[in-house]
Amino acid sequence: MYSVTKMIIAVGALVAPTLAFSGDMTYYYPGLGACGRTNSDADAVVAMSPNQYGHCGQKINIHYNGKTASATVVDKCPGCGGDSIDVSPSVFQTLAPLSAGRVQVTWSYA
Questions:
Q1: How buried is residue 110: exposed, middle or buried, by Cβ count under 10 Å (0-12/13-18/19+)?
Q2: Cα 92 from Cα 101, distance rounded (Å)
Q3: What is the pTM of this model?
Q4: Does the structure show a pLDDT above 60 at 50?
C-alpha cells in the first residue's frame, strides 16, 4: 500500500496544473542583481516583486499576446507590485517593443 501511495503522489505532482500569475511587465537594465549574479541587457533575466522574490536561479515562462519567453530569476524589483515583473530588454523585446514600456502579462514558474 505504501508504494501505491507514493506512486499516486508522484503522478499527482507531475500532472498538477501550473499556477499562473498576472501583472505588469516592465524592463530594466540589469547589472549586479540581488541574487549575486551580474547580468547584461542581452541575458534572459527577470527581477521579481517583493511578493515573489526568493526564487533565485529558477526559470519562469512569460506569456503576452500569443508569444512566450523564458527568463531566469536573478534580481528583486522593489518597485514592482503584486505579481508584476521587471525583465531585461532582450526578454521584453521578445514579447513587445520597448516603446510599449509596460504591458500586462501572465507568467508561471517553469
A1: exposed
A2: 9
A3: 0.83
A4: yes
